[in-house]
Write a structure and sequence with these properties.
This protein is of the alpha+beta class. The protein is built from 11 helices and 20 strands. The strands form 5 sheets. Strands 1, 2, 3, 4, 5 and 6 form a 6-stranded mixed β-sheet that branches. Strands 11, 12, 15, 16 and 17 form a 5-stranded antiparallel β-sheet that branches. Strand 5, helix 4 and strand 6 form a beta-alpha-beta unit.
């Protein structure tokens, strides 16, 4: 079954995160982009007041592009709808098959009716994956599943300003007055999600000052807790001479494209020095005509059809490869998975691996694979999050072959037929 591409209205808060989780668990849908209102002059998420750099880091950890609904301060409803239509047009230009926008609304009938009317004028449908779920249970599930979030905006006419900046956890839920919805559905408060099952990595945040705006709304200014460079767009590119110099620079810094063989980087530098064109050709080997593959113990095995693509964000930042056996989704025992990837250390924690794996899945379907398998070490939690964020399910705990040192491993499977 082919999944329907969907754009998700995204505020960065807990309801958005839960809506994304619900959609990713539903075999009917494939979330391809996020739609977020951003106030241009403030460079912040509208209403929530979250800095753009945190939105970008969050989106990178989700492995999804953000399409902005660009607003001016105190925009009229007419201005909002015009900006919303422009953003939807941009989304449909990038993803022509999109016919649905999903929203994280829970129970406000007037809000749902408004959204349905608005998108109907553009010839598309509205989807509400969380609609009707009891909000106390939803809030408790959010905490129990390991999400981390903070209250970034509090309506002081409904909730005391002291809650601004608080972590959204069991203690907070216990303290909320009974008249306040535990999910803040009536606008009592808004949140920013910094970690959880849908994110491939946490978004480090620090609590800044709390300020009162319009004599009503208490905003907590969340700050980026690390000094990573701003997140740049990442795309997969075919290896070519255009990108080779940057690739070589990564190898010279000690990076290896083979996580199981650190010496692979040095070997590739020698190959490139001897025959750069030949090196590039062997990275795309659809007929398995290349030399045998060297395993960690030094033994060699026949090469499978496959290729590698490079991650590029203005410079080389990693590689991802796909390999397969013609006519079957099965693999030989010595091949640990259909897909292997490696991100250079100085580009990690940006969601690049999650996004790269997401993009390579379309290639795997095109090769006729019904599923792909990936393996990782039991203690490699970042890799496990990358895989599960793309729909991976743990199918086996196993012991690797002697060629890989007989070490413990985890095998995940991603069903391509359901995507």
């Amino acid at each position: 079954m082919t999944r329907e591409p969907v754009v998700l209205s995204w505020s960065g808060g807990k309801d958005s995160a839960l809506a994304l989780a619900a959609l990713r668990q539903d075999a009917r849908y494939d979330v391809v982009a996020l739609l977020t209102s951003v106030t241009r002059e403030y460079d912040r998420v509208s209403i929530h007041g979250v800095r753009r750099i945190l939105l970008e880091a969050q989106a990178a950890a989700l492995g999804l592009p953000v399409i902005e609904v660009a607003l001016a301060p105190s925009s009229t409803n007419e201005a909002y709808e015009a900006a919303f239509r422009a953003a939807v047009d941009e989304a449909r230009s990038a993803f022509p098959a999109v016919r649905t926008i999903a929203f994280g609304d829970l129970f406000l009938e007037d809000v749902r009716a408004y959204r349905e009317r608005l998108v109907a004028t553009m010839g598309i449908g509205a989807l509400f994956p969380l609609w009707g779920r009891p909000t106390p249970a939803l809030a408790e599930d959010f905490v129990r599943q390991g999400y981390r979030a903070h209250l970034v905006c509090v309506d002081t006419r409904q909730l005391d300003a002291r809650f601004a900046g608080r972590a959204f956890d069991a203690a907070l839920l216990a303290e909320l007055p009974p008249e306040v919805d535990p999910c803040g559905e009536r606008g009592e408060f808004h949140t920013f999600v910094s970690a959880g099952p849908v994110l491939s990595r946490p978004v480090p945040v620090a609590i800044g000052e709390v300020v009162l705006r319009e004599e009503r709304f208490a905003y907590c200014d969340l700050l980026a807790a690390d000094s990573d460079a701003p997140i740049a767009p990442m795309q997969l590119v075919w290896p070519s001479e255009r990108y080779l110099a940057s690739y070589v620079a990564a190898l010279e810094r000690g990076w290896s494209p083979d996580n199981t063989r650190p010496e692979g980087g040095r070997e590739q530098l020698e190959q490139i020095a001897a025959d750069p064109a030949g090196f590039l050709r062997q990275l795309v080997d659809l007929d398995a005509k290349g030399p045998p593959v060297t395993l960690p113990d030094g033994s060699t095995v026949p090469r499978l059809p496959g290729y590698r693509k490079w991650m590029w964000d203005g410079e080389f930042c990693g590689s991802i490869g796909l390999r397969w056996q013609p006519g079957t989704s099965a693999l030989p025992p010595h091949v640990l998975g259909h897909v292997g990837y490696a991100v250079v250390p100085w580009k990690r924690r940006r969601g690049y691996a999650t996004l790269a794996l997401r993009q390579i899945l379309a290639d795997a379907r095109a090769e006729g694979l019904e599923h792909i398998e990936l393996t990782t070490d039991p203690d490699n939690e970042p890799s496990q999050r990358v895989i599960t964020a793309n729909g991976g399910v743990l199918v086996e705990r196993f012991v690797k072959t002697e060629q890989y040192g007989s070490e413990a491993g985890l095998r995940f499977r991603i069903d391509l037929a359901a995507r």
